[in-house]
């Protein structure tokens, strides 16, 4: 399936809901959304990847780019993902140490607010 | 050996086509279900890398994908056409092999296959945007992912470009089972 993107605000955090496949074809759309959100002053992002069916290194690059942008504003970009096949690429690349990866959106928000 | 050959234009949309085709052929070859996701991701990485390289250097040239069922009936297909095949690191029988052949100039020096994986201290401050400009990671991360996923990998330059060769063991022991499987 193609990529579906949605976002909404929850507890002062912008939640980006991603559904479908993130690859070299679709990743630019996610990148544009993340840039747009940051440009509009949203510096605390949670990307919900529970409905992501495929993620490659291009998608990882977009997430890292988004993390860099929010960190420039002392912000955060955390992920929600429990799918082993998606988590695998984070482990292979060592990015589990870079992103906060949580089991639910609320967990991600609570963790950030507790810091 | 049975061969499925796919030629795609250097367009990002066709990377998904290549992934789907590789997964379908791997499933038909008898690859374990647990390895199909690895094949899908590794083939996607190899094709993404090739597409980006072609878009930069030779956008009109096609990218070739060979999907080789090494456990299939012998003589079912001729050896893949194209550049001279590099020696394989393991025995060729009873493996599912994917060969991605691009025609973009090979980068020098060749990627270090020893330890290219990104570690926890990813540098976020100097975004190394690759050709195409959408990634915050080095293009070599794609190769690192391939190395992490495929059972055997070789990445070698040839006279026209680069050959990425990946393979996985086949569980199937009876080549005749091939005839029972359809689409």
From TrEMBL, chain A:
* Keyword check for Nucleus: no
InterPro entries given for it? Anti-sigma_ant, STAS_dom, STAS_dom_sf
One GO molecular-function entry: anti-sigma factor antagonist activity
> Which UniProt key words apply to this protein?
Phosphoprotein
Pfam families assigned to the protein according to its UniProt record, in alphabetical order: STAS
The STAS domain sits at 3-112
Coiled coil where?
none
Look up the domain of life of the source.
Answer: Bacteria
The Swiss-Prot or TrEMBL record describes its family as follows: Belongs to the anti-sigma-factor antagonist family.
Biological role stated in the UniProt entry: Positive regulator of sigma-B activity. Non-phosphorylated RsbV binds to RsbW, preventing its association with sigma-B. When phosphorylated, releases RsbW, which is then free to complex with and inactivate sigma-B.
* NCBIfam families found in the cross-reference section: ant_ant_sig
Q: What is this protein called?
A: Anti-sigma factor antagonist
Organism of origin = Streptomonospora mangrovi
From TrEMBL, chain B:
Q: Where is this region: Disordered?
A: 72-91
Domain Histidine kinase/HSP90-like ATPase span(s) in chain numbering: 8-168
Pfam families per UniProt: HATPase_c_2 (PF13581)
- What keywords were assigned to this record? ATP-binding, Kinase, Nucleotide-binding, Serine/threonine-protein kinase, Transferase
Q: Which InterPro entries match?
A: Anti-sigma-factor_SerPK, HATPase_C_sf, HATPase_dom
GO molecular function annotations of the record: ATP binding; protein serine/threonine kinase activity
Cite the record's Low complexity compositional bias ranges: 75-87
Q: What is this protein called?
A: ATP-binding protein
Q: Which organism is it from?
A: Streptomonospora mangrovi
